[in-house]
Design goal:
Length: about 150
C-alpha cells in the first residue's frame, strides 16, 4: 500500500466528463410466423411458429460531474453520475463502477442511486452500483460523496 501525505492545501481542478457507451446486450426471443408447404390441403394448420435469436442494442450516455470546480486537501464534495439510455432498446443488467482518482477517497456508505443498489463490496477507492435494467429514455442518477486527501 502506498501513502501520499501533503503538508499544504494544494488546489485541485475537477474536470467534468461525458462518455457515450454502446454495445451488444443479451439476446431476446422474437416470435414470427412462416408459411409451410406440403401435401396437407388443410390451410388452417399450414402455419408454423419459428423462434430465432436476435441482438438488441442500447446506447448509454454517461456523464460525471462534481458540485465544485476546485477543492483543497481535506475538502469534501459530491460527484454526480448520470446514466441515460439513448435507446433504441432496454439496457439489461447495467453495473456502474467508478475508481477514485488519485488523492480522492469515496464514502461508500453515503452513495445514493435513483435505481438499483450500491454493491456491498464497494470501497473508498472503488464504487460499484448494480443499476439493473435501464429503459430507453430513462436516466439513473448516482451521487458519490468524496474527500480530497
Amino acid at each position: 500500500m502506498s501513502m501520499i501525505t501533503f503538508s499544504d492545501d494544494l488546489l485541485r481542478s475537477l474536470p467534468d466528463s461525458t462518455d457515450n457507451l454502446s454495445g451488444l446486450l443479451p439476446f431476446s426471443i422474437i416470435e414470427n410466423t412462416a408459411q409451410a408447404e406440403g401435401e396437407n390441403t388443410n390451410t388452417a394448420n399450414g402455419q408454423n411458429c419459428i423462434k430465432f435469436r436476435g441482438t438488441r442494442r442500447a446506447n448509454l450516455s454517461v456523464t460525471k460531474t462534481a458540485n465544485v470546480s476546485s477543492v483543497f486537501v481535506g475538502d469534501t464534495f459530491t460527484y454526480t453520475i448520470r446514466i441515460t439510455n439513448l435507446g433504441p432498446n432496454t439496457a439489461i443488467g447495467v453495473i456502474m463502477t467508478d475508481a477514485a482518482p488519485n488523492h480522492i477517497i469515496f464514502t461508500p456508505g453515503g452513495v445514493t442511486t435513483t435505481q438499483g443498489s450500491v454493491d456491498p463490496s464497494s470501497t473508498p477507492s472503488n464504487i460499484i452500483v448494480n443499476v439493473g435494467n435501464i429503459a430507453p429514455g430513462a436516466t439513473v442518477t448516482i451521487t458519490i460523496p468524496a474527500t480530497v486527501i
